[in-house]
Design brief:
The complex is a heterotrimer. By secondary structure, chain A is α+β, with helices and mostly antiparallel strands. Chain A is elongated. Chain B starts with a strand and ends with a helix. Chain B has helices spanning about 10-25, 35-45, 60-70, 85-95, 105-115; strands at about 5, 25-30, 50-55, 75-80, 100-105. By secondary structure, chain B is an alpha/beta fold. In chain B, about 45% of the residues lie in helices and about 25% in strands. Chain C starts with a helix and ends in a 7-residue tail after the last helix. Chain C has 3 helices and 11 strands. Chain C has one domain (about 1-155): OB fold (Dihydrolipoamide Acetyltransferase, E2P) (Beta Barrel), CATH 2.40.50.180. Chain C is α+β, with helices and mostly antiparallel strands. Classes of the chains: A alpha+beta, B alpha/beta, C alpha+beta.
Chain lengths: ~625, ~120, ~160
Amino acid sequence: MNEAQKDPMFEIFISEAKEIVSSLERIFIELKEGNRNFDVAVAEALRFFHTLKGSSAMMGFDDISKVCHRVEDIFVCMRDEGKLPTSLDTFILDMLNLIDFLTIQINRIENSQQPQDAENIEEVLEKVEMSLAENDKMQAENEKRYHIRLLFEEGWEMENLRAFLIIQNLKQYVKVLEYLPSDIESNMASSEKIKKEGFFISIETLLKKEDVVKLFESFAWVRDIKVEEVSEKASLTKEISSWQNAIHSTNKLINVNIEKVDKLIDLIGEVVITFSMIVQHQEIKTDENSSFKNLTLQMSKLIRELQEVAMSMRMLPLSSTFQRLKRTIIEMSAKLQKHVDVHITGEETELDKVLIEHLTDPLIHIVRNAVDHGIEDKEERLKKGKGTTGNVYISAKNSGSEVVISIEDDGRGLNKEKILQRALERGLITSPDDIGEDEILELIFQPGFSTKEETTEYSGRGVGLDIVKNSVQKIGGRIFVESEKDRGTRFTIRIPLTLAIIDGMLIDVDGNVFVVPLSSIVETFKLEKQQIVLENETPFVYRRGICFSVIDLNKMFYGKDMLAKGRPFYLGILVTNGEKNGVLLVDNMISQQQIVIKTLPAILKQVRGISGCTLLGSGNIAFILDIGALLER
Amino acid sequence: MKKVLIVDDAAFVRYSLRQTLEKYGFEVVGEACDGKSCIKLFQQLHPDIVTLDITMPEMNGIEVLKKIMEIDKNAKVVMITALGQEEKVKEAVLNGAKGFIVKPYKEEHLVKVLASL
Amino acid sequence: MQEELLSSKVDEFEEAMKDMYLIFKVDDQFYGIEIKYVIEIIGLLPITYVPNQEEYVKGIINLRGKIIPVIDARMRLSKPQKEYNERTCVIVTSIDDFLAGIIVDHVSEVAVINKDQISSLPQTYEKINERFFRGVASLNERLILILDCETFVKPDRINL
């Protein structure tokens, strides 16, 4: 035994080295058997190699320390840069080889024998290093860079830390290059930025786009994931501004949850009703000139404005929908080789965003029908004496509390006989007498009505007008069709505005309450029985030398003759629809107030003269008169 | 059915968490009111998820979290916190918490987070 | 993943409700409608008559701010109308997002009736109302006519 061996340090070194080697062996065997996590194994092995390197260097055993140094470098590479060998099995074998080498070396040292030649093991290590580099290169070639924008749901709080959590998580799967806002860890205020603009991340990974998206799906508070593959050099900060510009360019928009807007609109409706109840309360004395009266007027104005703003939040102009219809027509007419001119009016008319979404497909279907079935080809048109170019008129306008959209063509019109025939064939009616003239056209809204001849590439099967009618009814609207042979067809869709508040006059007709829109009232006056003149059973009245027709609401809706009541006088309300005038015959005026318009359930038959209803403060239901329709007679 | 261990020093919080979780089909296998019993129950019951209050007397939430992660590095711990505890939340995230819920919490949020783990 | 959780709960719920029927009475006859259509049962509320409707459509009511139409079950079955009393109630149903109330004499119970308990209507039974019924079932010695809710509630002019 030589001096070195007698040295107690030597004993310690040998025993420690043996322990290290045996631990390393255990690590790699477990790794081979799949009982150890790779990253954990790497970290542990690294520690051991590092220790062995140090102690063997201190003892002067350079062969061992040099080898351990080289292995340590390899392992550091794997731990810090995530590099992996091309084949795990080969790697483990190589490592076990290495451990054998170390075992032999240590034994030889213990027995004062010559250390083994390291050349072989150096080759092995070089192989491992190469495989790491190769794998890395392969990966780099397949590695893709992605920019990601995440939008968080409202109300989760501490958004910056949630973003932080995402990054922590993400690091296990991909290489995170940068993220914005970058101060999520330290700055609570970055939450605001995330809420407004979203959380942006730039990563590099081998994963495919779908798999990248999946990485974020497990975070419950993420409501929108946008992933874009970008080039190697793309910088997140530069990308962000163009991403953000896309959002900001449309007039500084913010994202508001539609439920919040709905809630706001509901509340405003209730404010209107409650305010009316307050103003009409018996406990309040109202002198005409009192300051209280002024205050109530002011309040009414404010409520009105509130309502308009709330409604406008959900409203969008129909222009983009109409443009889309126009494009459909142009495409179709080109394909079908027909000439069609499109005339659009009222596209600035606004409608609730959600209603527009529900209407788009039905409108497209109607327009397709118009071009496909309605408009005739050039020859046929010439024969009929029409211009060779067909016309489709698309219009929208506000009428009372509704938006009225109409699509009209000057084509061949609907064939009533054919429709009747088809209905008989289908068993929808048993005899032509079952159905009135004006109801024939309504048959086209029955399911399964489209005839085989009518289904072409464009109209298709199964997307019948019944679906169109359903869609319209679903949003509380009504659809009508008018048609004349060789003159054309017109579809009219009436949609109630989600919330409309109008000033109305409550009137009493034999105990029933109706609302007359204030805007249609010209004047009210006492009407004596003698003033009412009957001509062919139709009542008229003269007022200031002009003859007005009298509308007996009681008779119209309830079949009771008002005049037969034998009262000495009634109340007459002169109303106008802008063009025509008439006098409503009522029992009494009740009050003037703001009312919230509600639609009648779609399941009911349309009642001419009634456009909707409202809930009074008492909980009773009052009908809103459609002055336009009443005067139309 | 996912097994959940509820840890909070306040009884009513444990109660309301249990109500919510059981309503949505989670199995509450145990409740702990402090760090020590939490660790014990965690080792005994092997729950799939632990909901852990961030502020508790004696052993605070972060310490408990660390201990749990030591026992099982794949443990799924969701921290229950409140506004103003951002530093603690950050520390929890750094120490392996898989999610956090801010009190007062929405049932929906709690369920969604636990369901996603 | 949470969608799976929630939608499977909805399916479970719907599964459980599948064979449950609300049994109500008009005159001496019992009728059943599937619970899945029933939103609630309320007492009679003031009805506002709506002109120009079918006879059995009695009008509309104000149900906590919502305006819904109500039909008289008796008249829908072409029986003569009777006066309403304090036992009269309204079954509020929801079909395709449309709400409608059915006025009935009396609601008796909720019962489970399996598919195999329902047999087809005998030929001679209430011919004029044939289209309303899916079949007939026997429950505790009573004959229950099983209604096709959609056909019963929706007016005939809609979707023939």
